[in-house]
């Protein structure tokens, strides 16, 4: 009797886990609504987007946006914190329903994810050494310009950038670097730049917030001109559940309309990144 | 010393040639390193004036004094009995080590604020994950060892394939493979069970080999004698082979326990909030990584020391036969 019960339990469990992976349209949304909880994946290692605060809880811009979406969908929220490469590997198999972690909606990624809500834009800017005499992007023609390897900034310098998301503003290739130096990350580029104007590099293309942060920490740099393009950052879900996408999309649109996003952006960045200007 | 004996000899650190060459070597190193900019330079201020302007003379004086102190320390410790020597050297190394951390200008209030959470959440999860894994790994290891020693072709093939595969892959890769791969087969496992599974399988493979070697170290005659008086396989194992193999198996198994405790940090990549995960994330916002990494390092170390002590007690218990 008990053995039989055990066996039925096993089979039921197996069946349950099998249904979980074959996501039908609306299946994820149905699950979320039935449980009354949406499980959100985000990083814990990326201030001020998402980090662990003084009270040892997750906090940050992305976390607040996720909470806002859950509130507007009328469900409770639960966070999980897998590493970034685990999230981008896809095959979430129902472990979490949504990713709110500043993902750029690129073409490659849209093969496995859909991006229902762009909730802010990171301006890509050009930073130069504070002693630099460059007054416009023209002055950087033929110079050495650095960017992070495989980033959108490097693709921009190589004139090979495509961002396929709704609402991406038009951009023009305004830089004619002599040499593109691809570096490990933005801090390496800035460490090269701080050595002096043109010592290793003459300019760095990267995200405006990271330049602002570096300047605050004493890096001798300044931002040249206006942002060269805007990188949209979006909520990501696995492909195949249009109903869930519609719900999230509606929530993000509502948060944009009532000014929640711009308030949150000002709270965490001090600047409104929720729209392009 | 491998075995204490009664052969008398001069103590190495009291031989004049050793003291002299030690002094010369240390002096050269300290002189080359130029200690005037460190705390030693500050302490010598009355003799050499402003350390940064003392030049070659200051460098020489500081190196000389520190080298004399170093060698004096060495000679004095030589006079102590063995137990006291070990104690003094331990304390000295510990003080050096901690003062090294102290120079990082750590914010102790931040550490004090975060340590309770690191213990209740991080240490708890780390211990829980390691304990469950080590338990499962031990069971796998016993089965694996018996299978590797059996004359059954299937059992041997499966066991040797298993040890070869799981010892041949990096543990981190196994964590990824199990966490990302199992859902493809229809089994969605959560982060903690996936981590426990990876740790158990990997350590089970290592411990299989340890157990096998331990069992094989028992003389063939024991087996033959036991069989000849009519004991079956299981009885021979339980009553004759394993009791003798245990003292051989225990020390390397203890090593595996300690290694497991630290390797459990690898499950942080799949988002388990254990000690390593918290060490990496708690200090992010305020750029206080060093504080958290050092606190976590010390906690791991203390946990390992506890395991070391337990291991040495067990070894003593089993080692009584070979001591006089």
Write up this protein.
The complex is a heterodimer of chains A (277) and B (324). Chain A is α/β, with parallel strands linked by helices and 277 residues long. Chain A has two domains: 2-103 and 240-269, 3-Layer(aba) Sandwich (D-Maltodextrin-Binding Protein, domain 2); 121-231, 3-Layer(aba) Sandwich (D-Maltodextrin-Binding Protein, domain 2). Chain A is 35% helix and 26% strand. An eight-stranded mixed β-sheet of chain A has the order 5-1-6-11-7-10-8-9, sandwiched between helices. In chain A, strands 2-3-4 form a three-stranded antiparallel β-sheet. Chain B is mainly α and 324 residues long. In chain B, helix 11 runs antiparallel to helix 13 (289-319) and helix 12 (275-281) runs antiparallel to helix 13 (289-319). The model of chain B has no long low-confidence stretch (mean pLDDT 88). The chains are: A alpha/beta (277), B mainly alpha (324). The A-B interface holds A 14, 17-18, 20-21, 41, 44-48, 51-54, 56, 80-83, 86, 89, 91, 93-95 and B 113-114, 117, 121, 176, 179-180, 183-184, 186-188, 190-191, 269-271, 273, 277-278, 280-282, 284-285.
